[in-house]
Amino acid sequence: MSSERISNKEDSISDYEPHSSADSTIAKSTTKSIGIRKVELLTDQYKHPALRVLLFFSIFLCAYTYSLDGTVRYTLQGYATGSYGTHSRLSTVNVIRAVVAAAAQPAYARMSDKFGRIELIVVSMVFYSMGTVIQSQAYDFNRFAGGSVLYQIGYTGIMIMLQIIIADFSTLNWRLTASFVPALPFIINTWVSGNVTSSLVANYSWNWSFGMWAFIFPLSCVPLLACFFHIWLRARKTNEWAALIAEEKTHYDNYPKNTIKYYTTLLSRTFKILKDLFWELDVIGILFIICVFGLILVPFTLAGGSSDSWKKASTIAPLVIGFVLIPFFILWEAKYARHPILPFPLMRDRGVWSALVIGVLVNFVWYMPNDFMYTVLVVGMRASVKAATRITSLYSFVSVIVGPLLGLVVVFCKRVKAFIVFGTACWFIALGMLMHFRGSNNGIESEKYLNGVIGSLCLMGFGAGFFTYATQVSIAACTNHEYMAVIISLYLSSYNIGSAFGASVSGAIWTNTIYEEISKNFRKAGLDESVALIAYLDPLGEFIKTYTWGTPERIAVVLAYAKVQRYLCITGLVLCVPLMCMALCLRDHKLEAVQSLELDHKDGVKSNDGTVIVNKNDEDIIITKIKQLFGKKN
Asked: Among 22, 281, 508, 608, which residue has the least CB neighbours within 10 Å?
């Protein structure tokens, strides 16, 4: 692609020929879009280490609030859905949220390159608070799910924006350590969240416990907003900022003032902006993603349960429509989308597609044993509210301890692939342990099984610390600053797609087996089967209050939970095989002390000054040698 093409569309964040031949390259031009140049100018204002520490601390404060809220909200979701008599639909809410998040990530990344990082943070705050208020005031499942969607749009936005800001203000060799800043609150929240949750459950309704975060979260973002306001004040005093603003204004037609043409030209300009935004965000592609994944995955979590609905049109029709839309989505992205959600030249790099598959599999595997973990711990393993909340956070706690320490090692060794492979290997052992301790239970001795689960989750978190964020750094090393936000958003979107798959599959297994297993155990023990329905619909409410540990009804439910959990853990263990295969496919770029490596798929990896850091891709060298051996031209 020529530099002239990029300079003519300087505000585009995905400005390449999506349908060019295989030997076309991306990110080759030294000319960058206006949005990226503005970001780099803003970044230059905080070069002093003390100022960057202040910025990262403000990011930590923001992340602390939403992570504590997320931990508490994850627990209270079960109480909310149980209050509607729809506890088994918990996975449905998780699927909907994951699908929305997957679609929102690329949109946030592209808009942040066009409009600015802090502007999108403000948008995220609005959606976050709005969705939280709706959830807290919902009096049925549908309204609760609607609030969850708006909350997820805000939550997704703030997460992706913090990661993009961190990538802007860090070099590649420090990127892994810096990426863990928003995750550090889990070290504190693992222990604090149990006390907070137990206090809220004991003294307040779940509605109030949800609603309070609509006010707490925006307040926690004030230091971050203040930092960016200070950065903007410093940047606007520079000559470069004035030049960029002037260049940005000339992109659209100038219009005369104080004339009747002012209004018509202003309307035309607004229409042009909206039209450009429509194509740059690939709105049609985003709608396809929501429809395809939503229509396919949600029915799996709804069918089954106490009444089999697999044969109903309401279940079959969405599945059929969802599968039919897949080829149309591929056709749109390949032929008609001007700025496809999936940048095809980048997607041909094995360092990119293998990382995206890892992102999908991480949450896919995690959801198998963990989607209903809190309910299993409280009802099936006799854990208290405080203990169950802490145990569900152990995975994050351990991974956040391991990750930053690994990041300090990477600063000096500058490689991540070997660590990623090791981390995926740890998951094999962790899932095997979970299959034993969560899939075996006699309904009476809870302590030894609970200790085994704790050890398994700690090992799973240990492995995750080696490869989740490290894979994000690995995929970011496969492009330059121009495409960095987009590629990070795609990786985080793959996480959400994995969450959707995981919540859907685990929800389908749970919904279609747990009620049958509970009823079977009740019949075998000669118990009242009407209680089985209560145990299925609202296990965390009326059931555990009435049927304490050791009663025949509780034992019947515990045994059913253990059997279904065994199915889920086996599914997760099988998925670990492709996870490790993808880890072996990753590239092992050397992470230099630069903002990004300039990856040219034809000429190799270059630094920002054009110096070659890494030679051609290994497979290209091998192919060239083979052709030379047989006397063929390149």
From this structure: 22
Residue 321 forms part of a structural domain:
no
> What count of other Cβ atoms lies within 10 Å of the Cβ of residue 621?
12
CA angle in degrees (0–180, nearest 5) for 620-622-628: 100
Q: Are 167 and 92 in a shared domain?
A: yes
Q: Are residues 216 and 148 in the same domain?
A: yes
Buried b (16+ CB within 10 A) or exposed e, 169-194: bbebbbbbbbbbbbbbbbbebbebbb
Three-state helix/strand/coil letters over 84-96: CCCHHHHHHHHHH
Chain-centroid distance of CA 313 in Å reads: 32
Alpha carbons 204 and 230: distance in angstroms, whole number: 40
Residue 2 domain flag: no
Q: Among candidates 48, 63, 53, 42, which has minimal Cα distance to 180? A: 63
Domain that holds residue 552: 30-251+342-589
Domain count, the chain: 2
User: Within this chain, do residues 602 and 572 fall inside the same structural domain, yes or no?
Assistant: no
Residue 483 gets which letter from DSSP? H
57 and 376 in contact (C-beta within 8 Å)? no
Coil, strand or helix at 28: coil
Residue 298: count of CB within 10 angstroms of its CB: 26
Under the phi-then-psi rule, with left for phi > 0, alpha for psi from -120 to 50, and beta for the rest, what region is 189? alpha
At 123-153, the pLDDT tens digits run 999 999 999 999 888 888 888 888 888 998 9
Q: 612 — phi, psi (to 5°)?
A: -75, 125
| Alpha-carbon torsion, ordered 117, 118, 120, 121, to 10 deg | 120
Spell out, as residue ranges, where the chain has pLDDT lower than 70: 1-32, 85-91, 248-266, 269, 300-315, 439-446, 595-634
Nearest to 156, CA basis, from 102, 110, 112, 221: 102
Query: Which amino acid is it at 100?
Result: V
* Gap between the Cα atoms of 134 and 228, Å rounded: 30
pTM: 0.73
Q: Write 295-299 long-range contacts (CB < 8 A, 24+).
A: 295/319, 295/321, 295/322, 295/325, 296/322, 296/323, 296/504, 297/95, 297/99, 297/500, 297/501, 297/503, 297/504, 298/92, 298/95, 298/96, 298/504
Q: pLDDT tens across 183-205, in order?
A: 888 888 878 877 888 888 788 88
